[in-house]
Design a protein that fits this description.
Strand order of the largest sheet: 1-2-3-4
Radius of gyration: 24 Å
């Protein structure tokens, strides 16, 4: 409170002078990408009760850095929930507010298609949940990622913690000192990491941080940024597929594919092909050969006439088999697969998509 009053007093004294004060050397090109100042806390009420749903722990005088906290298992009272259920289930009003904002942002995309302003991805933190993983405790931020596409399409989602954002920021700073100099990052705190205001400030800061990265072409195509968005989803989807949890894996593969479609694929075809292989395998195991064949066709279109890829023969074999099952034309894929086998470029029979999926190492 004292710091807030002092800040307002300084602001009042500065405004009494002749004209507006010039921007000082500390002014940033992207000032909003840092955490909001104390004076902005009053404006967080609508966000806390509307567009952002979250769970938070009460103030803990012994809080440490964001991803290393070990505090008491306490949550704010007054909402009728406690313990595990309170942490994992965001308020219904927050969910409705988040869905409303997602529709508004998608409408913005639709209206901006004919403008000359380059289109970028939009980010919205839809929930922030306190996760207890003894001896640590941290906040898991879930973001909706929205880009060009049908306005009624469900946005892609990612869930990341503070240390994930910090690692991305640190890696990009090492590689792109110039572009990153103007992009600030929410500072670490020693206390009050689980309060409503801290969570809301960081949520907004993370949205703006990712938005600013997407605004710079050099940063937008950085492999570290691609990894931040896609790699955790791919690893989890691969693990679930290998253990036979196909329905759970399918949702992750579909989300990863949507993220890659929105982000672009400057790093090559390996991850898109792996994602399509995961989708094809899950659809096939869930008795949906039509969707599995469609994924195989999409992969074959990506491969085109390029140099034979390790996934080419498995996708051809899957396409031939699924086409035969559905009574559709398979002659072109069959001839292409036979040509690869006669040239000694693939064994007979070729490895299956599931085999390659299990062996593929994601780094």
């Amino acid at each position: 409170m004292a710091s807030r009053l002092l800040h307002r007093l300084r602001h009042a004294l500065a405004s009494d002078g002749p004209g507006e004060a010039a921007a000082g050397p500390e002014t940033e090109q992207f000032p909003e990408s840092s955490e909001l100042e104390d004076d902005d806390a009053e404006g967080l009420s609508s966000r806390l009760s509307g567009t952002l749903s979250f769970t938070s722990a009460e103030d803990d005088p012994d809080d440490e850095d964001e991803d290393d906290e070990a505090g008491p298992d306490s949550l704010p009272s007054g909402d009728g929930t406690s313990g595990e259920d309170a942490e994992r289930s965001p308020p219904a009003d927050g969910q409705r507010g988040s869905q409303l904002l997602a529709r508004q942002l998608q409408d913005f995309w639709k209206k901006s298609r004919n403008t000359l302003v380059p289109q970028r991805l939009l980010f919205e933190v839809t929930s922030a949940n306190v996760v207890k993983d003894p001896p640590s405790k941290y906040v898991l931020y879930t973001l909706a990622v929205m880009g060009p596409g049908p306005p009624d399409r469900q946005p892609a989602q990612i869930s990341r913690r503070y240390s994930d954002f910090e690692r991305l920021h640190r890696n990009l700073q090492r590689q792109f000192r110039g572009p990153m100099a103007a992009i600030s990052f929410p500072r670490k705190r020693l206390r009050r990491n689980f309060t409503a205001e801290t969570i809301a400030r960081r949520s907004r800061a993370f949205e703006q941080f990712l938005g600013h990265l997407q605004a710079v072409p050099e940063l937008r195509q950085a492999p570290d940024l691609q990894d931040f968005f896609v790699l955790p989803e791919l690893r989890r989807a691969q693990s679930l597929t290998c253990t036979g949890l196909y329905r759970e894996a399918l949702a992750l593969w579909a989300n990863a594919w949507q993220l890659q479609t929105q982000l672009g694929t400057p790093s090559g075809l390996d991850r898109p092909l792996l994602t399509l292989a995961g989708l094809a395998v899950c659809h096939q195991e869930l008795e949906d050969p039509g969707e599995a064949r469609a994924c195989s066709e999409k992969a074959l279109q990506l491969l085109g006439d390029k140099k034979p890829h390790p996934f080419l023969a498995p996708f051809l074999e899957a396409h031939v088999r699924l086409s035969w099952r559905l009574g559709l034309d398979k002659r072109q894929s069959e001839a292409q697969l036979q040509a690869l086998q006669e040239a000694g470029l693939t064994p007979t029979p070729p490895p299956s998509l599931k085999e390659l999926l299990i062996k593929e190492v994601l780094d």
